[in-house]
Amino acid sequence: MNKKYLKVALMGAMTVIASGMFTSCEKDDKDVAVTDITLNKAALTLSISSSETLTATVLPTDATDKTVTWSSSDDSKATVANGVVTAVAAGSATITAKAGEKTATCVVTVVTNPLVPNTDGSATLTVIVENGNSYNSTISTAKLFIRPDGGDDVEIVSGNYANGGFTINLPATLNASLVENLEFPEAFTVSDSTAKVTGLRTSFRIYGYKDSEIVGRFYCKSGDYDVKLFYADKDVNISGQILREDRNDSIYNLSLKKGWNLVYVLETSDTYEVTTTSQGELKWTLNS
What we know:
By secondary structure, the chain is mostly beta strands.
């Protein structure tokens, strides 16, 4: 073969081989782009100072870079760090999770929490009653009672009623006779079985008084949920379901902090749901 043609042929073969090598490298090193990101919640309601964790799911699962960056549209209302959203002040903010060029959002609504806890377990409950100013002359005092299961009301604390509402300072501890041992079916998950809780079988009641006469009872709702006070002598999580044939099934999902807690209760035709998850703005009314 002519040396000239042999040289050209060899160079062509080397070019094809080199081209194949570079093509192969390009395929091996090609980034897998993020195609989607979703959050476990599209909307969230929190009371001031409370927190909840958002979970982001990035697709595809083999994306080269699945790093999620978080941001808040208004840090003065709600902040976010590694998915943990913390409520700062009443209002709303949009939390954005971004991976690659894809984003997902959650609208956070922050509501005023009438219950402000202290580290020792005590708390301050501040209530503004619907049309409350109309009761300024007919109610002088708000009194908190505990009604033990099958027992009589026991007064715990009271506060003056004025300007359409009242503030009462809740104690750090309750008398031992007023707290309950936890008794749940084995299927329940209880983080600390030694915890004692008031509110499960007993109930807290707040009455409006004019001098020594009862004017009415204060009730609290959040949407369709009744809102109740619970007390726990230590942090405890309680979750599980009780199935009944003769009445509604009960579903518990409680994350109680030491001291006083707001608990949301929803009764439907099928279930009785008890949760500490905030359901939004609270509405206090007086039933006479």
